[in-house]
């Protein structure tokens, strides 16, 4: 009898797969873990359905895809490091960090982005698990950069290909420079500790290509509106206009060729951070949402710092 079942993530999508029937015991088999990793490489995203919602299961699923790494921002909340090393806590607290998007007040809204764009190294992937859910919202969207590259208007694709994007660790809603919704304003800033501000100030700007080619040959359009500052060598009105056009086109295409996951108890999900973009719909400011995420080590080797990090920057934090 098979150790798990597979089916498409969603009919009509060129990416993603669902896995069901997976158990903690089955994951002790290295050949099975390798099989799951091969599905991940092929499809870019996996939703694990009706799996055991335990720390051990999240770590076992994560082990299919490589070793864990610590999150590069020290101020990000950690789950018990002795019990779950490398696991961060993503919590949306009541009334803390609120933005108005197209007439709705939302907490923990995030635009299309890839993780760790502000760092010289990316992470291969993240495994996400919903611990506390909200009644409405809290949906995570996923958009495949391979499909995005193919769907992009030819002229715009030609103009952005070969460009590099500059990113900084800038998380506040009023710091979003590109790809803003038509109706957008910050209502309440996100909480920001002195430790976070100190690390952000010490970090140089990071640079990543707008388009890159996978070892398997596919080109990936990989631009994060979140934390983007401009184009390398073209921080001009014309360069900013090009980056804005790219981010708005991602928003437009994201309405039709993306997958939006409404979390249920029993779900875990992994996405390829080197290939996929993701976003968060946000939730009502009066509700709280809690996610646990592991960070899988691995990089594509194309990111870099604009300048050398300051001596004061903790090298361990950048691993």
From TrEMBL:
GO terms for molecular function: dioxygenase activity. It comes from the Bacteria. The keyword Metal-binding applies. Residues 6-295 form the TauD/TfdA-like domain. Signal peptide: none annotated. Keywords: Dioxygenase, Iron, Metal-binding, Oxidoreductase. Pfam families: TauD. PANTHER family: ALPHA-KETOGLUTARATE-DEPENDENT SULFONATE DIOXYGENASE. Belongs to the TfdA dioxygenase family. This is TauD/TfdA dioxygenase family protein.
């Amino acid at each position: 009898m098979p150790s798990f079942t597979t089916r498409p993530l969603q009919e009509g999508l060129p990416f993603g797969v669902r896995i069901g029937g997976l158990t903690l015991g089955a994951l002790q088999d290295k050949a099975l873990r390798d099989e799951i990793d091969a599905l991940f490489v092929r499809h870019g995203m996996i939703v694990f359905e009706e799996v055991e919602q335990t720390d051990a299961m999240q770590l076992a699923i994560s082990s299919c895809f490589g070793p864990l790494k610590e999150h590069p921002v020290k101020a990000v909340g950690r789950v018990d490091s002795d019990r779950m090393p490398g696991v961060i806590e993503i919590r949306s607290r009541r009334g803390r960090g609120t933005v108005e998007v197209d007439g709705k007040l939302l907490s923990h809204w995030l635009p299309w982005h890839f993780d760790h764009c502000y760092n010289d190294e990316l992470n291969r992937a993240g495994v996400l698990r919903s611990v506390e859910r909200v009644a409405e919202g809290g949906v995570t969207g996923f958009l495949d950069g391979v499909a995005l590259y193919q769907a992009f208007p030819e002229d715009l694709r030609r103009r952005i290909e070969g460009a590099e994007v500059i990113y900084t660790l800038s998380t506040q809603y009023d710091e979003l420079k590109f790809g803003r919704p038509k109706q957008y304003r910050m209502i309440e800033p996100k909480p920001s500790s002195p430790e976070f501000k100190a690390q952000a100030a010490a970090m140089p700007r990071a640079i990543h290509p707008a388009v890159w080619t996978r070892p398997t040959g596919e080109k990936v359009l990989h631009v994060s509106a979140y934390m983007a500052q401009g184009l390398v060598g073209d921080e001009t009105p014309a360069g900013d206009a090009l980056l804005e056009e790219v981010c708005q086109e991602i928003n437009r295409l994201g309405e039709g060729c993306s997958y939006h996951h409404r979390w249920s108890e029993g779900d875990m999900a992994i996405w390829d951070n080197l290939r996929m973009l993701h976003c968060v719909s946000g939730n009502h400011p009066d509700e709280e949402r809690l996610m646990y995420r592991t960070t899988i080590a691995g990089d594509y080797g194309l990111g870099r710092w604009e300048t050398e990090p300051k001596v004061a920057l903790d090298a361990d934090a950048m691993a």
